[in-house]
UniProtKB/TrEMBL annotation:
Keywords tagged on the record: Membrane, Transmembrane, Transmembrane helix
PANTHER family: PROTEIN ROOT HAIR DEFECTIVE 3 HOMOLOG 2 (PTHR45923:SF20), PROTEIN SEY1 (PTHR45923)
One BP term from GO: endoplasmic reticulum membrane fusion
GO MF: GTPase activity
GO cellular component entries: endoplasmic reticulum
Claim: Transmembrane helix is one of the keywords in the record: yes
Membrane-spanning parts: 96-117
Domain Sey1/RHD3-like three-helix bundle: 1-94
Name of the protein this chain belongs to: PROTEIN SEY1
Leader sequence segment: none
InterPro entries: RHD3/Sey1, Sey1/RHD3-like_3HB
Length: 191
């Protein structure tokens, strides 16, 4: 934005050089975009003319460039805070979703271990469960593609107790999931 302001400040038809870019960047990019009070007396943006530039070639005086930059910063502040807030909300939602998915995986593994793989498969083959899987299956696959590696990393870091349960149930979980997905993929929703 500051580069565009520099280009728009004066008409440059004869390839003459000027220091407008340097003046704007050194004056406006000090962190808060305003000239410190100690430099106010020698502020190059307090002038109505650019050094080395004819008044006829000036489109935006230094003082106007300063005013436009302050207006731009004020206008963009709200947009930036909204973007930052949206990113923060998304980050929190992903973190919560990872926790929920991790808990569901551990609880699912516990259920399979408690009732056994055959009973879990019987439950999974019920029409209402199959209908639910048909509705949420594609979304679940999409979510797992997005956050699956992060969930696995979270489960890995969850502690020895959870890791031990998952390890001991590993073969049963894999068998149950493969059987359930095979049955689900062979169901009527496949075309």
């Amino acid at each position: 934005s500051l580069k565009i302001l520099e280009i728009m400040a004066v008409i440059r038809l004869d390839k003459t050089t000027d220091q407008i870019e340097h003046v704007l960047f050194s004056s406006l990019m000090d962190g808060n975009g305003s000239v410190p009070a100690s430099r106010a007396a020698s502020d190059p943006l307090a002038s109505n003319a650019w050094e080395e530039v004819s008044p006829d070639a000036t489109l935006l005086a230094p003082v106007e460039c300063n005013s436009l930059w302050m207006q731009f910063k004020a206008d963009i502040k709200y947009i930036m805070s909204q973007a930052t807030s949206a990113q923060d909300t998304l980050r929190k939602a992903k973190r919560a979703l990872k926790i929920v998915v991790g808990v569901v995986v551990v609880v699912g593994a516990g259920v399979v271990a408690a009732v056994g793989a055959p009973t879990a498969m019987t439950i999974a083959s019920r029409p209402e469960v199959a209908a639910l899987m048909e509705k949420v299956g594609p979304e679940l696959v999409a979510v797992m593609k997005d956050i699956g590696p992060e969930v696995l990393a979270m489960l890995k870091d969850a502690g020895p107790e959870v890791t031990g349960v998952v390890r001991s149930l590993g073969p049963q979980i894999v068998t149950a999931v493969i059987a359930m997905m095979t049955k689900w993929m062979a169901g009527p929703h496949q075309q």
